[in-house]
Design goal:
Shape of chain B: globular
Largest sheet of chain B: 7 strands, mixed
Distance between the termini of chain A: 37 Å
Strand order of the largest sheet of chain A: 1-9-8-3-4
Helix content of chain B: under 10%
Number of helices of chain A: 0
Order of helices and strands of chain A: EEEEEEEEE
Number of strands of chain A: 9
Radius of gyration of chain A: 13 Å
Strand content of chain A: over 45%
Largest interface: A-B, 27 and 28 residues
Shape of chain A: globular
Number of helices of chain B: 0
Oligomer: heterodimer
Structural class of chain A: mainly beta
Helix content of chain A: under 10%
Amino acid sequence: DAKTTQPPSMDCAEGRAANLPCNHSTISGNEYVYWYRQIHSQGPQYIIHGLKNNETNEMASLIITEDRKSSTLILPHATLRDTAVYYCIVRGTNQAGTALIFGKGTTLSVSS
Amino acid sequence: GAVVSQHPSWVICKSGTSVKIECRSLDFQATTMFWYRQFPKQSLMLMATSNEGSKATYEQGVEKDKFLINHASLTLSTLTVTSAHPEDSSFYICSALPGEVRSGNTIYFGEGSWLTVV
């Protein structure tokens, strides 16, 4: 799987949009970009994933650059409950049955 | 989303005893489940991959005789920590892959189980 690079920490004011970047410059054509988050002392929670096109669901939006070398997870209106570690993971179609490998992620702190 | 449940949420056991942690997929069948361990302030570390009806595949450095994994049905995998020692104290997390294996599948995680060995 391609490696990802994320900033170790970010701050965001409550009610504002949180934009979490992820660099995956070595991503190959068959690799998806997945985002999970882990709130303290809980298991990771699935947020969103995509291949080429931008994706949106009730939790967040995923913006993938045209060259697919980076992506941004957007939480449109951050709340205190969004404080968590956010993980960006790439995973190939040839590894559909394999586990997600976690890096260090970005610790997002939302404050009032 | 799909639900994965772990039990117990937390357990305290005496050094030298064994403890079992269950992972269940509640609303889907999972041919593949994964077990992770997480120490404080660290990321999740994959321990093993569990496939229904076959032996688990362990990551390098994980003792298969100490961490026994059984995936007897499509909705249940168990992790047994045998002869537990204080250094085994950790947060254990399972995840499950729904249905047939195909690209773009979403993997869902349990709530995690805290193990403290005293």
